[in-house]
Specification:
- The structure holds two protein chains of two kinds.
- In chain A, 0% of the residues lie in helices and 50% in strands.
- By secondary structure, chain A is mainly β.
- Chain A starts with a strand and ends with a strand.
- Chain B starts with a strand and ends with a strand.
- Chain B is globular and about 40 Å long.
- Classes of the chains: A mainly beta, B mainly beta.
- The interface between A and B is medium-sized, with 25 and 24 residues.
Amino acid sequence: EAGVTQFPSHSVIEKGQTVTLRCDPISGHDNLYWYRRVMGKEIKFLLHFVKESKQDESGMPNNRFLAERTGGTYSTLKVQPAELEDSGVYFCASSRREDYGYTFGSGTRLTVV
Amino acid sequence: GENVEQHPSTLSVQEGDSAVIKCTYSDSASNYFPWYKQELGKRPQLIIDIRSNVGEKKDQRIAVTLNKTAKHFSLHITETQPEDSAVYFCAAISSGYALNFGKGTSLLVTP
């Protein structure tokens, strides 16, 4: 089966600009998660979709971050406007319903300058 | 919420030696503990996991132990090889499906 795909793999933007990250989960995986790793720190949970619904968005840092999952398929994570502290690697992961076994994507490395 | 502590942050071993990485967690309700390996520039990959009703699990050279009373769990890699070099993350789930990760251990296996 195809894995979790993230696009772009790298993005460099200026402070104040907008960036949209995309995640295509494994087909049939109802659960979709966004995580972020800031340089040298732990991977932190951002939010969890079950199909198109936000199940848990307790990890979203502030209202500059907006996640959507249209039709319960792919998901986007928009950062607007981007700040320097948003730099890091953003990971998407998916899993089947009632399954803790995640499959991670390769991540998007975001650099805000 | 859950807090996962991971030690050491870096670990260097010689090929053939064993490596042990330890994690502690704070929420006694946590019931699932996976370990992920992340090679440079690649995705975190699940290498082994354990649930709270099991004390130990082994898969070839990799084993994980769980002590629920003490709230800690450990990853053991035996007969290490250079390709084991990577960053290893422990994690725990206490409620829902969100993983709480440790800060990672950078393992270097020297030939």
